[in-house]
Amino acid sequence: MDMITKIKEGLGLRIVSWEERSPRRVYLTVNKEDIFEVSRFLFKELGLRFSTASGIDAPLAFEIIYHFSDDASGVVYSLRVVLSDKLHPQVDSLTPVFAAAEWVEREIWEMLGINFKNHPNLKRLLLAEDWPQGDYPLRQGR
Amino acid sequence: MSHRVIVPIGPYHPLQEEPEFFQLYVEGERVVDIDIIIGYNHRGIEKLSESKHFDQIAFLVERICGICSSSHPYAYVLAVEDILGGEEKVVPERAIYIRTIVDELQRIHSHLLWLGLAGHFIGYNTVWMWAWKYREPVLDCFEMITGNRNNYGMLKIGGIRRDMKDEDISVLKKTLDELVPAVNMFKGAVMDDPVIKARLVGVGVLTKAQAIDYCVVGPTARASGINIDVRRDDPYGAYSNLDWNIIMEKDGDIFAKTVVRILEMYESIRIIRQCLDKLPRGAIDADVKDIPVGEGIGRVEAPRGECFHYIKSDGTNRPIRHKIRAPSFMNVASNKVGAVGGTISDATITLAAVDPCYCCTERVAVINKPDNKKIMNGWDLIKLSQEKTNKLRERFKDGRAQ
User: Fold this and answer.
1) Which residue from A86, B78, B136, B382 has the highest number of Cβ atoms inside 10 Å of its Cβ?
2) Candidates 3.40.50.300, 2.40.110.10, 3.30.1050.10, 3.30.460.80; correct CATH number of A3-89?
3) Element (H, E) at B180
4) Is B297 in contact with A128 (Cβ distance < 8 A)?
């Protein structure tokens, strides 16, 4: 069974949208409530590697795209989560699933102001200590 | 017994050339915990990129890192070409081969640089001097092909900026021929030397399970028995047409990382030789004009591992989001497990064994403004230019100077 079938069967109705834009680039949307469980499934059970996550300040919502790499086939699965609460964007932390998420989430938190629930060590990574609180450099309209 | 002491290393690191700050928590000689504090080199390149047009960004991202200064622009152009339909559909074949040559030459010079630094870190300065000596001819080749020893300016969307001359090929081949005995010597000097083995075997071990947990990439992952390499997994450039091997080790210690890097240099030499033999003739640039709406991901196997760029375009001449993830971002975090449990004397080499590159990992410079100087941003300059235009308009109101 190939990876695409495994993911489709494993996630089932958790997949909100599925788009294969090119043979090695798959984009899917999942609900933010499901991201923890979905990532756990992809990482622990299917053995995908977490490449990174891109936080985006879109006009109507914040988006986080989690990029998982299937190194056996070279496919990058990009999981999009839409955080429609623009004032208090929040999502579950993936650090309890894999350590690699710790720095990636700290960077998104300080740059875009997205809160990660249950993150064990949510503090600044790149910005200086005296950078003003609540000022997020990658938000649009600054 | 558990008298815990903090040993600060940095931000002016006694050995490494970049600022980073490690707080080692030690009990006696043993490191029990570590705090990694970075951010001293953060320059806000992701934000800057949103204000540049697509052609300028290749130059911008090239300046993320001086060592892997073709990996970042390569990953970036691949991300944009991903929106356009993929590298193999857009870029002329000759350009793809020359991109591959530059990418591999860079790997050789980067690995030699690391090998020299690693030698220096363990007090083996002969290896340092040798490694950097043999790195020089490689940099000379870069100067010949690209015009620069670093920051090559070769990559552009749809091709490359500068063609290779036919006479360069023989010089490059000769340099590679002369490099092989040097790599042989390093292989002997490192892999057969009992002193180096005593110093590096079993030190700073990153187990396979830890490597998976931290999602490390590149030689750091391959030394821990993880069989990944973007060049094979998600092929770009000419790699899928060439015959080469992935170097793997399974012990995860510093010795394994050293072996992986040394043996990878042979593979890079093989790759470049094949590219030179197969180098097709033809155009080097597809002359791409517009970037459509879309999202693209570009991945390149930089000397330190997978370099990841994500571009979101809204159809204008600038991206609306450009996410950059350098390989060291994943690798440096793994020091948390690599250095803990070892002795403090092993910490320096362990922390350097992932071949960290901080200017890559971080990408806001804080400017201390002297009171009597005014700093102007882009908008101030536009305003100044508009004021000047209005003044000129006033002067030439009647079609001649007043």
Assistant:
1) B78
2) 3.30.460.80
3) helix B166-191
4) no
